[in-house]
Amino acid sequence: MITALQSWLFPPALTFLSGFTTSSYVNLSQITTAALADDALGVFKISSGTTHPVVTGPNSNESAWEAFYPEGSYNPNGPIRGGFGFYMTGPPSFAEQLSTANEVLTSYSVMFEPDWEWMKGGKLPGQFGGVGDLAYRCSGGRQNDRTQCFDLRLMWRANGAGEVYAYLPLSENNAQVLATVPPMSVENPDYGFSIGRGAWTFRPGAWNVVAERIKLNDPGKNNGILQIWVNGTTVIHVQGLELRNSSQSVFQGMHFQTFFGGSTSAYASPQDQKAWFSDISGAILG
């Protein structure tokens, strides 16, 4: 029996060569089950001053990482630390395939508590990659070596509007392609490119299942793909992208980061708040 959650984490239109999930509701022969634990999922480079305890998720019997955003918290380096952040390769068998993959899917479920206050926005996990260590910190307004990395986290904005917050090579082609993604896309000159803002809306007090598919471009060609599903529905599908200009730029895993911000206190959480992340999954598509 195919559960709704399984089809939302692993969209059935795709072909999976291999993969993993922490969900007990997935039954696919190519997908192995992994524990929601740092060592099992290859968690490293954990942001200082934050924790991500494993709890039983609300309205669920599944394990979840709990994120706590204290009142006044914003920015990973702000005076009050909130949320959490780390990089994640996935289980060893998955991690070993990332550097030679050209198409990868990652997915997870996120729940914001019922009385959640969105403010101006905040970050959510997404895929990252690049050339060696230059792949790390492909965010935070980085301008140097932007052709050597890609970072495609998600964001919530005011009233729960969703978007992809992309750091990609600063090419004229990327700017032209991304600017046309509906309902609204914004090129931020000093930070990431906001793609498809409002293409979906996160619901507080409920599990929101997001899946992100990335297909790398062939170096020298603009044929990369970004696709996002939310609760099983495609909400963003962008083709013609340049994610890299060298075959040395490869998938490295997930940038599993969440916090309020933005880099100023205007983004700060107005109260103590919690969110939960469960059903962490990934698959090699090609």
Automatic annotation (TrEMBL):
InterPro entries membership: Polysacc_lyase_14
Keyword Chloroplast set for record: no
Domain Polysaccharide lyase: 59-280
Pfam families assigned: Polysacc_lyase_14
Lineage: Eukaryota, Fungi, Dikarya, Basidiomycota, Agaricomycotina
Protein name: Polysaccharide lyase 14 domain-containing protein
Keywords (A to Z) from UniProt: Signal
Domain of life: Eukaryota
UniProt keyword Signal, yes or no: yes
Signal peptide range in chain numbering: 1-15
